[in-house]
Amino acid sequence: MSVRKGKAYYARKVKKAAHLLFFKRHYRPGAKGWELKKAVGPDYLRVLKILDGLLRPLDLQVKQVFEAPVPEVGPEIAALPETPAESQEEQKGRRSPDEARYYVVLRSTLEPSELKYCGWRIDDLAALAISIALILARGGKAPRADVEGFLRKKLPGWRVRAGLERLIRSGYLGEDEEGMLYLDWRSLAEVDLKGLLDLLSKLELNS
Amino acid sequence: MAGGERRLKEARERLENIIQTCREVEAGKLDPFAVPVEDLIEVIRGLFSLWREPEDLSLDARALEAISGVVKAQSEWVKKRSTKLYRDPFLVEERLEALEPETLASIFLKAWHPIVELEQLTLFSLERALTYWSELPGREEGAGEEEGAAEAPMLAEAGEVVFEEIQEALETLWAELKEKARGGSVHYWDFIAGETYAETVRRAYLTSFLVTYGYARLEVDPLSEEFVLRPRRRPLRRPRERGTSVVIPITCEEWLSHVS
After folding, report:
1. Do B158 and B137 meet the contact criterion of CB atoms below 8 Å apart?
2. Of the segments A16-25, B227-236, B243-252, which one has the largest average pLDDT value?
3. 3-state class (DSSP) for residue A79
4. Which B residues in the span 110-139 are in contact with A, Cβ-Cβ below 8 Å?
5. What is the count of structural domains for chain B?
């Protein structure tokens, strides 16, 4: 039996969810599904959907990201079933939304002229693009030495090492004990990996 | 009888070869689809009637198990290539090599949706910062109130080096920079590289203060895209432009490449 909830009920919950997603409380921004469930209630997916709708005019969206062990990016929040309970049948064989992490990300993309607002240089962004594409091409992991070697072909040597360290510190890349680089949480949350590879492939067709 | 023995020996060798080939596939040395699985199974089936000894039957079982490893490798190959993120690695690397950093950055921008996050200063973090600051050596009550103390380099504040010594070293290095730059600029590494690695680190460290305290400007040469140092005629006491932090790794390898 479903109970119809009023506007005030959801308005309160949407505010709470927005606070959790926007304000950085720990090392990582955003909030885990189980955190939202605890703070907002079991219908947190419905609340996130409402928040997503409110953020749309601001060119922002709520994004669901599944992290380790499989780098799987969730669908748009609008496409999700509203509550985990409602979707138990559909969820068979899939991961629970409580395990995912939810972020607020830019819905569209930035213009090159807007980069300076975020403190990014063209070279840094190119280094990130190369590292991500190379790691994806190698099946999810690539030796750091290979990535550094590749970056040196494109960028001044002194910038390569510092640049990679910055990407690791900010969570775009991770490095395991064997010196292998992999895509870390921020790449999974911010980058449309399939889109990036498609764009690279398409460019080949045009050139 | 001797012919039968020879036939048995040859049959065992064939099985050993099959096992070896399959192991190479499992180790990733061979393409899993380069191995004709059905033909190998036919061979194993044909040889089965020869086996009498338990060792031979065990060898037969090992060969079959090795073939199952090839089938598994084939299945993984198909699975990996059927994922949405699979692209031919050679194609991707070729593309990356051919494209300029500007083009790569503009492609990346079309696939990048940065996270929006807010960082806030809480009363708790303010309190922690205040405690940290007040516990720094030389920051006890009353200290640091004299004029000019705020401009003293950090090491002097920490009480490790006498301020006058650093000031003198900075003045000397500044004079050297002005001489080398001859009214223009000098490449950062050409300036800091010393005869030893330790000397290079010392010069880099002092140079960072030259820049921080307005004795010189750190710029990027648009042609070589390398850092250059441009000395000022007199130190800039109150910087007009907003300062930014630049990280320059001073590794031993980099130093060796500059002195060799």
Report:
1. yes
2. A16-25
3. helix
4. 110-120
5. 2
